[in-house]
Write a structure and sequence with these properties.
Length: 160
């Protein structure tokens, strides 16, 4: 495939209000709910980039570094930062926002890999990643470095 697509064309931002059905007994977001939102956001970013259906192939290590409280707004943001022949790597960040004060805080980050599918459901080539602006190059480089650092920490933590 000689086609290219930009990091910016994949950018996806979703918002979700944390309601009681998605909370634990402390009134905080269930981890599975947050992972669900992240998977959807990442898939949309992958589909926008590839102009194809994509399926989740993997998700890297996830640390929940701050809770999302009931009534807060979760902001889920993703973009493609790397490609393989039939796969796209997507960084997904989640922030919590207090809608009354506009204060936000980072809650988690993870890196997903999605595989593009053709009409018969078989893996199909994706465009090459292009980062025409300095902002896009910085986002790509930060995601590549962040994924590498996250993997290094997991290896160190579990003494692999």
């Amino acid at each position: 495939m000689d086609e290219t697509a930009t990091l910016g064309s994949s950018h996806t931002e979703m918002t979700e209000m944390l309601l009681p059905n998605d909370t634990n007994n402390l009134g905080r977001a269930l981890g599975g709910t947050v992972l669900h939102w992240m998977d959807i956001c990442g898939a949309i970013a992958g589909m926008r980039f590839a102009n194809r259906q994509v399926v989740t192939a993997s998700m890297d290590h996830v640390d929940f570094i701050a809770p999302i409280e009931m009534g807060e707004v979760a902001i889920i943001e993703g973009y493609v930062f790397n490609t393989g022949r039939t796969s796209v790597d997507v960084k997904v960040d989640v922030r919590a926002e207090n809608p009354r004060t506009d204060e936000t805080r980072r809650t988690t980050t993870s890196y997903f890999t999605f595989v593009a599918l053709d009409e018969e459901g078989r893996p199909t080539p994706v465009p090459d990643l292009e980062c025409p602006s300095e902002d896009e190059r910085v986002l790509r480089d930060d995601a590549l470095e962040g994924r590498e650092e996250q993997l290094r920490q997991v290896v160190d933590r579990y003494d692999l």
